[in-house]
Amino acid sequence: MPWIRDDGTIDRSKTPDFFTIEDETGQIVTCPDGKPLQIPEEEFFAPPPPPPPAARLEEAAERGNVLVLERKPACGPNGSVRWIETWSEEPAIAAVPPSS
C-alpha cells in the first residue's frame, strides 16, 4: 500500500479517494444496486465515535468485563455508507508482564 510509510504511519496525500470494503472471506461487499461498497477516504479515517456512558463502563468493570465497539460499514440509501455500531461486553484480559 503506497500510502503507508516505512514507519507504519499513513501518508494521507497518497490515500485513494475511496476504499472498497471486503467481508470476512475477502469478497468485495456489494450493495443492492450491484456496486461495491466504498467508503470515502475522509470517513475511513474519521475519528472513532464517543465512548459509552461512564455508568455502562463501570457496570461492565464490576463484572470483570470491558465494552468493545464493533463498527462495520453497510450499504445505505443510494449506495452511501452507513455505519452499524454494536457495543458488546467481553471478558477483560489481564495484562501479563513480559517474561525476563
Q: End-to-end span in angstroms? A: 36 Å
Q: Give the domain tally.
A: 1
Strand order within the widest sheet? 1-2
What level of helicity do the residues show? 10-25%
- Global shape: extended
Report the structural category. Answer: alpha+beta
Q: Would you report the number of β strands?
A: 4
Characteristic key phrases:
13% helix; two-stranded antiparallel ribbon; single chain; two-stranded antiparallel sheet; 100 residues; alpha+beta; 28% strand; 2 helices
Itemize the secondary structure elements and their pairings.
Elements lengths: L17 E3 L17 E3 H4 L9 H9 L2 E11 L5 E11 L9
Antiparallel strand pairs: 1-2, 3-4
Short description:
The protein has 100 residues and is an alpha+beta fold.
Please explain how this structure is put together.
The protein has two helices and four strands, in the order E-E-H-H-E-E. It is α+β, with helices and mostly antiparallel strands and 100 residues long. It has one domain. The strands form two sheets. The protein has a two-stranded antiparallel ribbon with strand order 1-2. A two-stranded antiparallel sheet has the order 3-4. A hairpin with a 5-residue loop joins strand 3 (65-75) and strand 4. It is extended and about 45 Å long. The protein starts with 17 loop residues before the first strand and ends in a 9-residue tail after the last strand.
